[in-house]
Amino acid sequence: MTAGKTVAAVDCGTNSIRLLIGAIEEDGALREITRENTIVRLGQGVDATGRLAPEAIERTREALAAYVDRMEAEGVSAVRMVATSATRDASNRDDFFGMTAELLGRIQDGAQAEVISGEEEADLSFTGATLDIDSDRGPFCVIDLGGGSTEFIVGTAAGEILGAYSTQMGCVRLTERILRSDPPTGEETSEARGYVDKQMAEAAETVPVAQAATFVGCAGTFTTLSALAQDLDSYDPERIHMSDIPFARMREVTGWLRSVTAKERAANPVVHPGRADVIGSGSVIVEQMMTAFEAHGAVSFVISEKDILDGIVAGLV
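RESULT FIELD:
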């Protein structure tokens, strides 16, 4: 793609929809124009009903329409949007994909949301999350903790994927299935730990975690945990990106999150109100990860603000 072109990537997950717009410079580098995140809870109830809730589709439509307006204002000429696999499996999926085609068609003919293969998702997520990490710290284990699923990808600094696996655990899914109390009870937490351990055992059969030297966490749960661990007064992406959070400090934060209500979490300026009711479940997932990774010598997470969006844009470039 030639210099001067402006491209966009959109990632629609279970809990949020996100946008990255970048312009290609003369030297081929990408200049970031904007990075936005909107909590839409597209996966609301889909685990139980098999359908996308009409109000969830409408929230997503409103957010995507605002993103398309921004793309038009910035002169975007190429766009790619990926969506959670739950949209493909929903019985009313045509309502969702038709909506995205109508909106994205304003930017590029034929563009609409697509559900990509697990292999491509792993490659894009790994590429994005490790863009700014010193190659000497490889091999890397990238953990993309989402609302409905969590991906584990181990790869080399050269980008070779050694193993990848998508588990059916995420902060929204765990909240709706198990951690229903606010704050969660000890019994719920114990049940959730067992569920997470089972999912991680399945991942370990495919992903060579023991080969990883650096563990990289990306997506909203991890970035919020970093902000809390650093006692930030406001959500600061520059201070969060590439932060190295020791497991001991992370456990202090995750323990606190489950000791307070969603309202109390939301009162903290770094916790997005739309994440406050589900990050308690995210804290359980992260705690069980730390216990598993410590067996392989891990002592901290590197937190990346970059993820699949950056991988998508790199592909467009």
